[in-house]
Every structure is written in C-alpha cells, then in structure tokens.
Amino acid sequence: MAGLREVQGANKCRVRAYRNAARSIDNLGRSVAEMAERGEDLSAIPGIGKELARKAVEISATGSLADLTRLRRQVPRAVTELMDLPGLGPNKARQLHEALGVATRSELAEAAQAGRIRRVPGFGPKTEERILAELAARRSDKGSNRSRFRHADVEQVVEGLLAHVRRDRGVVRAEAAGSFRRGKETVGDIDMVAACRPGYSVIDHFVSFGGISRVVSKGPTRATVVMRSGLQVDLRSVDKDSWGAALHYFTGSRAHTLKIRLMAQRAGLKVNEYGVYDGDRKIAGETEEDVNAALGLPYIEPELREDRGEVEAGLDGRLPELVTEGDIRGNLHTHTVATDGRMTLRQVADGAMARGYEYIAVTDHTQSLRITNGQDPARVLAQFAEIDRLNDELEGRLRVLKSAEVDILLDGSLDLPDGVLREMDVVVCSVHSHFKLPRKHQTERIIRAISKPCPIILGHGTGRKINVREPYDVDIEAVIDAAARLGRVLEVNGQPERLDINDVYAKMAKEAGVKLSVSTDAHRLSEFDFMRHGVMQARRGWLEARDVINTLPLEEMLASFG
DNA sequence: GCCGTTTTCGGCCCGACTGTTTTCAGTCG
Question: How many domains does chain A have?
Fold first, then answer.
C-alpha cells in the first residue's frame, strides 16, 4: 500500500504511516491473524490505528484487501516492479514508466541496452548501467531467496571486520551496532560504528578489508560494502565525542530510535547521530548513558530496544535486570554418545565443570526417535545407574541429573513408562514427529504431554529451525496458559538455528508467570557455548535471572516445578 | 494514517551519499 500510494504521489506522512505499521507488524513476532482471530484489539500495536486495524482484520478474514486490489489496478505493474530495484524509488520508477512507456522488467532491460534510459531527464549513464547490472543480478540470483543471516553465522565476520577497523590507529573504539548488537536471531545486514580521533575518518581503511566484494557507496563518514557472502556491511565513522549518540542511533531498532526522537522533539530537544541538542547547544553524545540521561531515561540494554514497552518501562523505572550468562548455574539439555551426541557421560560432566556449572542434565533421546538411536527403558535405566556411579566419583563437585528428552507421541503421551519417568530429576519433553498436524490437534497433543505430573520442561516449543523449517502449527499461547496453570517450564533452546521458544513468546510466558530454562541442547562439547545464544534470546524476552530456573541452586531449581 | 508529559488537531526523525545538476532531488538507512 505504501509503495503504491507513494507512486500516486500521496501524502508522505500517510505513506510513512503504512510503512511504520508494516514494520511494526514485522517486528511483532506474533501472528496478527491469530491476534485478530482471538478478537484482540489490533490498534494496541504501535503504529496501528483504527483504520489499519480494520484493514488487518480484513486481510486476516478474507486473505485480501479491497483497497489494495483497487490500487493495483490503478498503478501499472511495471512501476512497482521497477521500485524493487535498489536505487529506484517511486519517483524514478514513475518517471521511467512515463518517459519510456516500459511495462515490464524485460522492456526496461531492452530500453537500458538501447541507451534510451540515459536520455531521460534526471537520468544518466551511471543509472542506466546500474539498472542493467541489477537486472542481470536478479536473473542470476533467481531462486535464492535472499534470507536473513543467522546471528551465529555472522559473528566471525563481524569479529574480523571489527579487528580490521580497530587496527587503524585513528580509531578509538569500534563496535557492531544494529540488529546484531540487539542480539536478534537473524540479521539482514551488519551495522558498525567507529569512534575516531577528532577530524579523522576510518572509511578508506575500512573498505580495504579483504573479504569485501563490492563497495556500494563511500563518503567521508560512512560506507556500505557487500562481502563475498552477500552480507552487506555499513560502517559509520564519527568523532569520539559523538560515540554514544552514533552507537545509539545505529543500534536502533528504528522503531525504538524513532520513539526516542519524537520524545526528544516534544521536550524541545533534537537527537541525531552526533548528539542531543538544545537549540545549537550539544548537551550529550559521548556515551549512550549520557544520551538517555539527557532525555530522562536510564540506560536501556540493546536487546530491549524494539519498542516493546522498554521506553515506557525506562521512564517508570521498571526496566528488567536482564539475565546474564554468568547467572547460569547449570545446563538442562544435553546429548551423549548413547544417542545422537558426540560426548561421553564423563565428557558432559567435565564440560559442565569447566564452565563452573553446579549441575547438568543428560537428556538423551527416547526409543521412538529411531534415527537418533533413542533409548528404550532398559537403556535409560542403565544410563541412570551409570550416572549414579559418576555422581559418586564427582564427590559433590557437580551433580549430573537423570533425565531424557522424551518424545511426545502422536496422541500426546510420553515415550517412556511412568516408572522410568519417576526416576528422573527433570523431564524434558519435545515434539520430533508429526509436524503437520492441524493446529488444534497439535496444541492439544502438547498440552496433554505437559499435563503429565512430572517436573516437565517443554523442549523447543515450536519446532522451528531458522531459515530451514517453519514452526509447527501450534497455539503456543494456549500452551503458555497451560504451562502457567500446571507449573511447567518452557525451554529457550540455545541452538543457533532453533532459539526456540523465541523472544516474544518468552516475554509472553514470563508475563503469564511461567518459568523458563535456558539450555544448549548440546550434542558436542563445543556446543556448550550455545548458552550464549540462548541467554541472548532470553534477554530479548525481558527475562531476569529469577525467571530462569537454571540460575537457581540445585535444590531450588528442582523445587521450581508445579 | 497515527498519535498525544503542548492530547482530538496539527504535527509527523534526521542525515549521508549518489548522480545529476550546477544547487538539489531522490534514495536509503
């Protein structure tokens, strides 16, 4: 709607309202269709008012939008296709369409090859070349949906880039900002900020980095490059007395920044990436704490900056004290060589002790999950005997907990007999099959499973794998309600491709009074490091140490089930 | 079309870079 209205020359603020609303819904982490179905008031979503709430309900109910259909008839398809090309916005797309009469992308390509674009007023040879290059790239790129990158997959690149930037002697500090710094599970690009000695710019040094395949734009204070992997990286270089303001601005999220700027504006102040200004006088900018303080706000952790209530909480002094990796006393989801893990029991224990944990749960798969060599009751009990011997050897330095990742069967029963379940300290139970069940059935199945009177942790509650597999169709909010009622625990799984349940559901669970565990689902020793990713997701879900059972000493942890 | 610590009207973040122009519009983040 925004694009089409823009082409038609609609009021810019109205266009922006659509964009803001779309972004807000994108960042919501919940299904608006579901909310509509539950009869929730959609205008409670930031950026959604009465009219857009009505439109959202219409889309949810009918699968289409009458206004959109009408607009599409009014605006030639070619114009919107042209707008998808980087560098072409609504105005240029419209000009091209009107001047050359091109109706499709291939006609545009023909026009470009014939040199007709450069003769359109306002266009030139460079624009023509760029259009050709972009069209060619689209053709060769076909089928590869340019998905976002998983956070863990770009960490090394970010470290390399930062090390390169910091090597420049004019650089005082440099950090990644953007969604990477906010700990989002995926990132679309990498934003970085460098603080330099006064008057110095690191941009030339930055673009000399080895892994760069293309410099998209480059000025004295910022550059955009594309790495060979296709990852785009933006660097912003500022004087060190603007470090805080620049880091704040480029960390975003855009919705968070926008909210703060509007707030400042109402207070008669101006915020930009150089600082906070009272008229011409700069009143803050060197640190993020200064910037926020100038606006009457405490420091807000990057993971919270999504305009999900953190600004209001900051104003009211209600910001959560987020859980840290240092708070974690144990890991409640690991696998050994008994099933599909690569660690022996002893190695699991050693890994846990190396990380200073007080306890660790061994949660191998159960019999129904054949592909992992899942354990039948006899093997489970044999493993428990082995755990008893190991605990004796460890003499209290670590407690290895008896557990399993018990399969939730099709009907919601658990994959081990009650007698075996009773031997366990905690029971992780998870869905590994029948992903395609109808929503109602899937939801009832999971709720039945966690209703079993055991100390149950629901493992990876939605089954999604980022960029690989969609979540199964489950009413996770109903599961959260059930967990709250039953005193069951939901897991935040730290596997970088799972991170399941996600930040939004974790926050929802917390607000419903549900406790969570943050665990690694480690199959090998190095995967103990996944705790970092799990904690990051938990922090994005506003979780504090007291919300996470594995920050508790052993006995208290065991007592935290309903 | 949204929104409110100047609240139901009258505003709407702010700056960098590019390509084209010869002082700036368009695009992007």
Answer: 3
Residue A138 is predicted with a pLDDT of 75
Nucleotides in chain B with any atom closer than 7 Å to protein CB:
1-3, 5-6, 11-21, 25-29
Question: Which domain range does residue A255 map to?
Answer: 149-316
HSE at residue A244, side-chain half, CA atoms within 13 A, is 19
Question: Where do we find the tokens 């439109």?
Answer: A55
CATH of the domain at A8: 1.10.150.20
User: Which residues 3-32 of A interface with strand B at a CB distance below 7 A?
Assistant: 11, 13-14, 16-18, 20-21
Beta-bridged to residue A171, according to DSSP, are: A196
Same domain for A153 and A136: no
Report if CB A93 to strand B is under 7 Å.
yes
Q: Do A126 and A168 fall within a single domain?
A: no
Nucleotide nearest to A12 (CA to C1'): B12
Instruction: Determine the nucleotide nearest to A215 by Cα–C1' distance.
Output: B17
pLDDT tens column, A216-264: 999 999 999 999 988 999 999 999 999 999 999 999 998 899 889 988 9
DSSP A391-457: HHHHTTS-EEEE--EEEBPTTS-BSS-HHHHHT-S-EEEE--S-TT--HHHHHHHHHHHHHSSS-EE
More confident residue, A11 or A360: A360
Statement to judge: residues A116 and A173 lie in one domain? no
Is the full-model pTM beyond 0.85? yes
Residue in this structure with the two tokens 């042209």, named with its chain if needed: A82
Strand B near-CB residues (< 7 Å), A 253-312: 257-258, 261-262, 264-268, 270-274
Which tokens is A288 given?
Answer: 């993020």
Kindly state whether residues A309 and A344 are assigned to the same domain.
no
Domain termination residue (choose one: A265, A298, A316): A316
Kindly report, residue by residue over A362-384, the tens digit of the pLDDT: 999 999 999 999 999 999 999 99
- Same domain for A175 and A62, yes or no, is no
Residues A275, A351, single domain; the answer is no
Q: Are residues A288 and A171 in the same domain?
A: yes
Shared domain check, A284 and A312: yes
Closest CA to the C1' of B18: that residue is: A217
Query: Residue A262 CA to nucleotide B13 C1', Å?
Result: 7
In the 103-142 stretch of chain A, whose C-beta falls under 7 Å of nucleic acid strand B?
118, 121-128, 130
